[in-house]
Amino acid sequence: MLYYRIMKEDQAISALNALAHTQRLRVFRALVVAGPGGLTPSTLADQLDVARNTLSFHLKELAHAGLVSIEQQGRNLIYRAEYGRMDGLIGYLTEHCCQGGVCEVSPSKTCC
């Protein structure tokens, strides 16, 4: 189970701003799908058919927002989705969902 901390407003704005671009959203989703193993920039570029220099810019923006981490493995960089940060954003957005009452979206359960 992942433990996360609900974000502060400025962190949520930064994360939402980073995801508010088609290519960055596609990159982030690809990293989420890749799981904890992550992906190299060249693999991401090939999968998403994105120019490497453009991809580098988008990865930097996602990293700046804390949505991806970067690890050096030999000569390669491995990018991974930061699941705790993603969960923190979701927590921020749903923190007061239906004021803790019965969820309007799914009436069979209590919100969040």
How would you describe what is shown here?
This protein has 112 residues and is mainly alpha-helical. It has a single domain, classed as Arc Repressor Mutant, subunit A (Orthogonal Bundle). The chain is built from five helices and two strands; from the N terminus they run ααααββα. It has helices spanning 9-19, 22-34, 41-48, 52-64, 83-94, and strands at residues 68-73, 76-81. Helix 1 (9-19) packs across helix 5 and helix 2 packs across helix 4 (52-64). The longest helix is centred in the N-terminal third of the chain and has 13 residues, at 22-34.
Brief summary:
With 112 residues, this protein is mainly α. Helix content is 51%, strand content 11%. The protein has a two-stranded antiparallel ribbon.
**What count of helical segments does DSSP give?**
5
Spatial order of the strands in the main sheet?
1-2
Q: Tell me what the CATH architecture is.
A: Orthogonal Bundle
Rg calc? 16 Å
Tell me the series of helices and strands, N- to C-terminal.
HHHHEEH
Low-confidence stretches: none
Query: What characteristic shape results from the CA principal axes?
Result: elongated
**Termini gap:** 16 Å
CATH homologous superfamily identity: Winged helix-like DNA-binding domain superfamily/Winged helix DNA-binding domain
The helix/strand class is: mainly alpha
Biggest sheet statistics: 2 strands, antiparallel
* Broad CATH class: Mainly Alpha
CATH topology: Arc Repressor Mutant, subunit A
Overall mean confidence score, pLDDT: 88
| Range of helix content | 40-55%
